[in-house]
Amino acid sequence: MFTEHLTQPERGALRRLLVWLAAVDGDVAPREAAAIAQAAERLQLPAEAADLVFGAAGLDALCAVIERPSAQRIILAELVALAHADDDFRFVEKRALGALATRFGLGPAELDRIERWVDAGLKWKADAREVLLLDSP
């Protein structure tokens, strides 16, 4: 979603944040792994995870790369979509997204607005697949 508006460093930060969020609940579900691989392809970045383990200092460094308000919101939207990829949006994921939004200077209301927008888009996509018979033989 709108990742074409991200700079190359912001895209790299997004890739790392996708893996971080997927692992925050201690379980990277197959659908989350597939969503990360698809995002890496869309971002035109390799999907290797060798350098993706980082702590709070690494998270601060990533957030420092993402200074533009539009980039912050695009990245949060991508992360919300990933959190919904396994149809199990857990409290720990929501808490992690809230912490990231806070680092970006966004409050709970703005994050909630992004979450509702992403959720509506995911529902629209699911309805489109049904209406267009994309899941039929």
Give a short summary of the structure.
By secondary structure, this protein is mainly alpha-helical. The chain has helices at 8-23, 30-42, 56-65, 69-84, 91-103, 108-131.
Descriptive account of the structure:
With 137 residues, the protein is mostly helical. It has 6 helices and no strands. The longest helix has 24 residues, at 108-131. The two termini are 28 Å apart.
Q: How large is the radius of gyration?
A: 15 Å
The structural class is mainly alpha
Order of helices and strands: HHHHHH
Separation of termini?
28 Å
Residue runs with pLDDT of under 50 for 5 or more positions:
none
Q: Approximately what portion of the residues adopt beta-strand conformation?
A: under 5%
Characterize the largest beta sheet: strand count, sense, and whether it forms a barrel: none
Mean pLDDT reading: 85
- How would the global form be characterised? globular
Helix share of residues?
Answer: 55-70%
Overall number of strands: 0
By DSSP (H or I, 4+ residues per run), the number of helices equals 6
Furnish the topology, listing elements before pairings:
Elements: H1 8-23, H2 30-42, H3 56-65, H4 69-84, H5 91-103, H6 108-131
List keywords for this structure.
137 residues, mainly alpha, 67% helix, 0% strand
